[in-house]
Amino acid sequence: MIKQINHSQAFLSKKSVKATKMDGAVVTDLMDTLKANTARCVGMAANMIGSNKRIIVVQMGMLSIPMINPEITKKSGPYQATEGCLSLEGQRETTRYKKIELHYLDQNFKPHTQEFSDFTAQIVQHEVDHCDGVLI
C-alpha cells in the first residue's frame, strides 16, 4: 500500500528498532511507496512512511531492493555531498563514503554482506542514517 511521506522531524530523529519477520507488511508498503515516488526518490527508510522499523529500500536500476536491519560494517573514501530528502525541505551538505560494506537481511531474513560504491553507496548511507535517526 502506498503511504504518505512523513515530515515530522521529531519522529524521523528517533532511532529505529530492529525489524522482525512480523514486519513483512512494512517492507511491502515501503516498496510500494518508493515505486510511487520513483520520479523524485531513489531510496526510502521505513520511518519515512511512519514505521519506526530498521528497514530500507534502495532503487538499483529497475530493481527495488529491500534491506532489513542494515548495518554499515566498513567505509572508505570520505567525501562531501549535497543531498535532498523527500521528508525534508531543501538540500544539505553531508559526509559520505565512496565505498561501504553492508550487512543486512533480505525479505526472507537470509543474511547478506555486500559492498556498494559510488552513488548506490551514497543512497544506502542516506537511508541507514534515517534508521539511526540522523537527519541530513
Automatic annotation (TrEMBL):
Name of this chain's protein: Peptide deformylase
Annotated family: Belongs to the polypeptide deformylase family.
Organism: Secundilactobacillus similis DSM 23365 = JCM 2765
Domain of life according to the entry: Bacteria
One Pfam match: Pep_deformylase
GO molecular function terms listed in the Swiss-Prot or TrEMBL record: peptide deformylase activity
InterPro entries in UniProt: Peptide_deformylase, Peptide_deformylase_sf
